[in-house]
C-alpha cells in the first residue's frame, strides 16, 4: 500500500503552491503549518535544496472527531501535503494517505474516520 497519493502539475512552484492551498480550502481543509524546507536547510545547514514546502492541512471537524476517538492520534496530525519543484514549470503535489498512516492504530472507528479524510484529500489532489 502506498503511503501517499500525488499529482504533477505543469506549472511553477509558486503557482502550484497557490493552487493546492486554494484546493485544500475548497475541500474543507485549512493550512495550520507551513515549512519552507529550502529556506530551513539554507539557514540551518548552509546547503541549497530545491523548492520544497510541507503544508500541514487540517479539517477541524474531522480532527476533532479523531481526537475524540484516540487522544494520541495528534502525533499523526495534521495531514501533510508536500509541494516540490521537480523541474522548471513542473511541480509535484503529494498528500499523505491517512488510511495508510492510521494502520498502526487498532481502532475501527478511527479507521473509518481516516477513510473519510482520505476521500476528501484524494478529491483535492485529483482536482488540481
Textual characterization of the structure:
The protein is α+β, with helices and mostly antiparallel strands. Helix content is 45%, strand content 28%. The chain contains five helices and five strands, in the order E-H-E-H-E-H-E-E-H-H. Helix 1 (13-26) crosses helix 5. It has a five-stranded antiparallel beta sheet with strand order 1-5-4-3-2. The mean pLDDT is 96. It has helices spanning 13-26, 37-45, 60-69, 98-101, 108-127, and strands at residues 4-9, 30-36, 52-58, 79-87, 90-96.
Could you estimate the helical fraction of the residues in percent? 40-55%
Tally of DSSP helical segments:
5
Amount of beta strand: 25-35%
Give a count of the beta strands, DSSP E runs of length 2 or more: 5
How is the main sheet built? 5 strands, antiparallel
Q: What is the straight-line distance between the termini?
A: 23 Å
Runs in which pLDDT lies below 50 for 5 or more consecutive residues are none
Structural class: alpha+beta
Radius of gyration: 15 Å
Multimerization state: single chain
Strand-and-helix sequence, N→C? Answer: EHEHEHEEHH
Mean pLDDT: 96
Largest sheet: spatial strand order: 1-5-4-3-2
Morphology: globular
Amino acid at each position: 500500500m502506498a503511503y501517499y497519493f500525488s499529482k504533477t502539475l505543469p506549472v511553477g512552484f509558486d503557482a502550484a503552491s497557490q493552487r493546492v492551498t486554494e484546493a485544500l480550502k475548497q475541500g474543507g481543509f485549512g493550512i495550520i503549518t507551513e515549512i519552507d524546507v529550502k529556506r530551513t536547510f539554507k539557514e540551518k545547514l548552509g546547503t541549497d535544496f530545491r523548492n520544497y514546502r510541507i503544508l500541514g492541512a487540517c479539517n477541524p471537524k474531522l480532527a476533532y472527531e479523531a481526537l475524540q476517538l484516540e487522544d494520541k492520534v495528534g502525533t499523526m496530525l495534521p495531514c501533510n501535503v508536500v509541494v516540490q519543484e521537480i523541474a522548471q514549470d513542473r511541480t509535484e503535489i503529494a498528500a499523505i494517505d491517512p488510511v495508510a498512516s492510521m494502520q498502526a492504530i487498532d481502532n475501527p472507528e478511527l479507521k473509518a474516520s481516516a477513510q473519510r479524510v482520505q476521500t476528501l484529500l484524494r478529491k483535492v489532489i485529483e482536482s488540481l
